[in-house]
Amino acid sequence: MNQAVSGTPVETSHRLILGSRVNGTPVFSKEGERIGHVDDLSIERGTGRVVYAIMSFGGFLGIGEKFHPLPWSLLDYDVEHDGYVVPLDRSALENAPHYGRDELVELGGASIRHYDQRIFEYYGPYGPLPYW
Amino acid sequence: MNQAVSGTPVETSHRLILGSRVNGTPVFSKEGERIGHVDDLSIERGTGRVVYAIMSFGGFLGIGEKFHPLPWSLLDYDVEHDGYVVPLDRSALENAPHYGRDELVELGGASIRHYDQRIFEYYGPYGPLPYW
User: Fold this and answer.
1) Contact B19/A19, CB-based, under 8 Å?
2) PRC-barrel domain location, by residue (chains A, B) (predicted)?
């Protein structure tokens, strides 16, 4: 295996990442404050695109835990923080569309167009374009 | 919430799926034989595309377990099986490129171009085009 790897440019070795490694990765506000962590991913079945990283936000032992679907393109991996930094401050993240776990499971992760519109309307000013 | 959902066409309510629901879903050969299950996903960081579903293939209590990265487009969800059916027979799936868990973790899921080429060369006759 080392033979196959030797000579491979470093950047290509990090082009892909396992979903199991994305989950649990902390999410920071633009000020560098830790806000939550990625709990799950929401994937468009047909194309296989990750539409949202589902951020878990607060709560204690699952009580009061809320989930904020973040458009994937907002997440910028930051080596120094060893986590994702998003270009919103804490209050903007707090006020973003969020759901309880039951809602996410039931809907396959904000899969109802009505929800999608609300989410992309909210994050639109930060760059992400609707995926549909 | 029910108000938001009512009137939404059924098909749109299943456009997205949570990664946590994909994981654990059984994979069947084209003859309908259960071969393994999806253990993880391999995601292209920049675009957020799921490139591979990582299929766990056999093994017992993790011993001898091998992982076969399957190009996402090969997976066809089948309601009757309640799982993914791929257009290969058992022996073609057995002979496909596979890796141990350590290799997958280290490489972020077959992220070295050399591996990608081998995988897409193997599955090319079944339809998937290289993603790069």
Assistant:
1) yes
2) 17-91
ipTM of the complex model: 0.79
Six-digit token string for B66:
């091998």
Burial A61-76 (b: 16+ CB within 10 A, else e): eeeebbbbbbbbbbbe
Q: Which of A17, A104, A112 is closest, CB to CB, to B108?
A: A17
**Distance linking the first and last C-alpha atoms of chain B:** 40
Contact A12 B112 (CB under 8 A): yes
Does A22 sit within 8 Å of B43, measured CB to CB? yes
In the numeric block, the tokens 């799926």 are attached to: B17
Is the CB of residue A5 less than 8 Å away from at least one CB of chain B?
Answer: yes
CA dihedral B74, B43, A97, A120 (to 10 degrees): -80
> Quick check: B22 pLDDT over 90?
yes
Give the pLDDT score at A62: 63
- pLDDT band with cut points at 50, 70 and 90 for residue A9: very low
Mutate which of B12, B13, B16 to test chain A, going by most A C-beta atoms within 10 A?
Answer: B16
Within an 8 Å CB–CB cutoff, is residue A3 touching chain B?
Answer: no
